[in-house]
Amino acid sequence: MRGAKVKSKGRRPPVKVKAGPELPLLPIAVGGILIVLAVVLIIIAVINNRSTNTGLPGQAAGIPCDQLEHTQVHYHAAVQIVYDGVVHPIQPNIGIQNPAAPTCYYWLHVHPADVNVIHIESPKTRVFTLSDFFAVWTKWSGINQPLDATHVSTITLTPDQKLVVYVDKGDGKGAQLYDGDPNKIVLLAHEVITLEITPPAVTPPPAFTFPTGL
How many angstroms separate the CA atoms of 123 and 16, rounded? Predict the structure, then answer.
């Protein structure tokens, strides 16, 4: 029809795309750092506690049972138990788990080839006492190994018996009578500790010679 206006088709307005929510970057970064720190702490804990995390025996007097023998600190002391006038050798392999195929060694242990010799093999310097050795003996054997006025390992003294202790520090003075608490005797290189149950009395106590090479 003449004179009628024809509507022109204009462009459609652009479709607006709705943006998604912005991710909080700071919490994500902090969370990532915390996860990394947690992993690092777990790794450190595994390394520092390898003696317990691998199913190995627990500590005795703060002394662990490690998979390998140490050489950083390595020396030898001896302990001999005299009963009925003769030396009774202490148990071989004290402090060595599964001697046939050792799985771990306490820092204080006894090799069967070196009778009555305590091998002190530690990764660090510390004071070791006779009490520490008896604690390892107890942990290793699963049997209480006391050391006091009426007990030496599994030996119980009778009322008429007495424990006499000698210490030879290897300084040329020979075995000296020790009247203190034997548990507090510090283990020194080439020291010989004699725990003598009297009577009978063996004076001086039996001599001890360290095996060649120790």
Answer: 70
Instruction: Spell out where the chain has E strands.
Output: 65-66, 73-83, 86-88, 96-97, 104-106, 108-109, 117-122, 147-148, 151-152, 155-156, 162-168, 176-178, 192-198
Residue 155 lies in a domain: yes
pTM for this one?
0.74
- Decide if 183 is inside a domain: yes
Q: Are 113 and 184 in the same domain?
A: yes
Q: pLDDT tens, 129-186?
A: 999 999 999 999 999 999 999 999 999 999 999 999 999 999 999 999 999 999 999 9
Cβ–Cβ contacts within 10 Å for residue 24, how many?
9
Domain span at residue 144 reads: 65-198
pLDDT average, residue stretch 26-39: 60
